[in-house]
Design a protein that fits this description.
- The structure is a single chain.
- By secondary structure, this protein is mostly helical.
- The protein has one domain.
- The chain contains three helices and no strands.
C-alpha cells in the first residue's frame, strides 16, 4: 500500500511535468498517479505490453497511465 502511494506520487509528478501545467499539487498528483497506474495497466493489458521489472515497470506503467489521464482531463475541461 505504501509502495503504491510512493509510485503513484512519483508517477503523478512525472506526468505533471510531461503535461506542462497539468499538476494538481502533491495530493492531486498522488491520486492522478494511482488512478493512472490502473489506467496504464488496462491500456498495457489491452495492447499485450509488459513494462517488465517490479519497481521500474510499475513506475513506467503508472506514469504513462497518468499522462493519458491528464490528457483526458484536459479534453474534458475544454
Amino acid at each position: 500500500m505504501i509502495w503504491t502511494i510512493i509510485i503513484g506520487g512519483i508517477a503523478g509528478w512525472l506526468a505533471g511535468n510531461f503535461m506542462k501545467g497539468s499538476g494538481y499539487g502533491i495530493l492531486g498528483n498522488i491520486i492522478v498517479g494511482i488512478v493512472g497506474g490502473f489506467v496504464g495497466g488496462m491500456v498495457f493489458g489491452m495492447l499485450g505490453i509488459s513494462a517488465g521489472g517490479e519497481l521500474i515497470g510499475s513506475l513506467i506503467t503508472a506514469t504513462i497511465g497518468a499522462v493519458i489521464l491528464l490528457w483526458l482531463i484536459g479534453l474534458i475541461k475544454k
